[in-house]
Amino acid sequence: MDAKVNPAAEAQAERRQAHAVIVRNSRDGDVPAMLAIYLHHIRRGVDPGIEENEFETPDAEDLKRRRKSMQRRKMPHILADDGGVVVGYAYAVPFRKRPAYRYCVKHSIYVNNDHLRRGIGRLLMSALIDSCAAAGFRQMIGYIDAANRASLALHEAFGFRQVGYLPSVGYKFGHWTDTIMVQRSLGPGATEPPKS
To answer: Which single residue of 47, 92, 184, 192 could bond 172 by disulfide (Cβ 3.0 to 4.6 Å)?
Structure first.
């Protein structure tokens, strides 16, 4: 007996097969989609007892300024594009502002909630690591909620290792949350001095 096929699901699968997800540099026109992805994750991670006006969220102009500032500093700000739809984005920023830390970046990756478990985070991570290494950075750092097992597994798959544990630094959903700090070397890492 043939199984019933959902025409909408079948059409969506065909559209996905018709085009591959590409990773590219972000543009000003992508800001609304990136902002929507970011705000979803921020709002989901905030205690429901907190009013939205009690925490600061960026607006489109703020995100455009940040993106341009990163590009001026040769910091990657990339996204995953699925047939013209922004399904995730990633970027790196200086780890610290002091000159001694100029070869170290910290990073963030956000994936559209409707596109989780499709390998988008993996695509973005690979491209972000390559971009940071090509720009001459030597170390990459991330901070991950200890309960976010998917993100921890992704980072581990890309060679990040846990270098710190910050207990009870966040409070959301009625309990304290821990943060795990991860790090990965880029290019020659610390085996040789940087090129000026």
So the answer is: 47
Of 62 and 183, the one with more pLDDT: 183
What digits encode the pLDDT tens for the residues 60-103? 888 888 888 887 888 999 999 999 999 999 999 999 999 999 99
Closest to 25 (Cα-Cα) out of 95, 87, 97, 77: 77
Q: Kindly state the tokens that stand for 117.
A: 């478990």
Residue 129: HSE in the Cβ half-sphere, 13 Å Cα cutoff: 19
Decide if 12 contacts 19 (C-beta within 8 A). no
Can you give the pTM of this predicted structure?
0.82
